[in-house]
Amino acid sequence: MVSKVLSFILTPIFRPIFRFLSPLGPCVNKSVSDSYYFSKKSKQELIYSSMGNWFELGKHKFPADALTFIPLANDIGKDKDHIFFQYQPQQVDYTSFNIKDKTILRDKDHVYYRPYEYSHQLLVVEQANPETFTYLTVDDNNYSWSRDAHHYFYYHKKVDVHYPSFKFLTAALVADHHHIYLAYGHELLIKEYVTAPIEKLARCYARMGHTLLYHHSYHGYASFKFDKIDRIKITDDEYILVNNQPIIKGVMLNTPVDTETFETFPDWNYIYARDKNNVYFEGERFASADLDTFEIVGHRYSKDKNHVYYEKEIVLDVDVTKFRIDDNMTATDGKTKFYQGKPEDKSNR
Length: 349
Description:
By secondary structure, this protein is mainly beta. Among the domains are: 1-89, no CATH class; 97-159, no CATH class; 291-349, no CATH class. Helix content is 7%, strand content 37%. The chain has 2 helices and 40 strands. The chain has a 4-stranded antiparallel beta sheet with strand order 1-2-3-4, with no helix packed on it. Strands 5-6-7-8 form a 4-stranded antiparallel beta sheet, with no helix packed on it. Strand 2 (36-39) and strand 3 form a beta hairpin.
């Protein structure tokens, strides 16, 4: 709170000082880029400063012709002789260089991409056809995957897959008619041989015959082989029932459930679930929850007519009828504040 107050007070004071000290003159074309500027000293000089933040991110004069220079993207521009990435001239075909769909950097011979590491030279996507190259939208992995008419690319590197049969199963699991692959980091790893038809089930799950496949960027990769799969029920992206066996976040639980009545609680995804017999927290059964009166309070608290629970453990010495969520991730029954299911102690926060 103090820092916000100081910022509110000091910003109007220092803003004119930074403006006075700034080496940046007018933006060349702010509708295209907020990083290319004329020098304050002379409109014959150009300066590249990322987002105009010269004080923190620096500034770089560069040898472009100021009269003919125009920005093509936030960090790419050209003058009468050169294409520039940030403030460095590039080794591309000047005449044919263009930016397709605001994302694809190309000339008549190559597709280019911005370097992942600190560098000022555009890199070539080897073997990519500039006429047919396009980026793919795959869940949250936008721009990591791309393809042209004959190849797939992962982080701009060609991958050795069977192009006609290649398909996406989850955000990171892909397959062709030979293998199932895991996109891990910047690599494509072979995880399984294809032994049966493959189908996508949910965002994190796929099926190959009697094998269930799972991947999540945080929880990792897992596969489950069954003698036979009679039934699959999908409750959400992380929670799936195979026969009557729950699998949550890629872990098979030793808690058989009633498949017909099993469901997750609305708005709580895989965290809370129930069937006709039990209530579950992250797949683990509440031993003592009363089905008829069970309700979710929030912040991983729940309660029934008899108890308050934190996760699936009973909270002791609490008035169930008055229990509610308080501010700052705490809860209260009007007499005692609770943090993570225990009476609040500043030392355990």
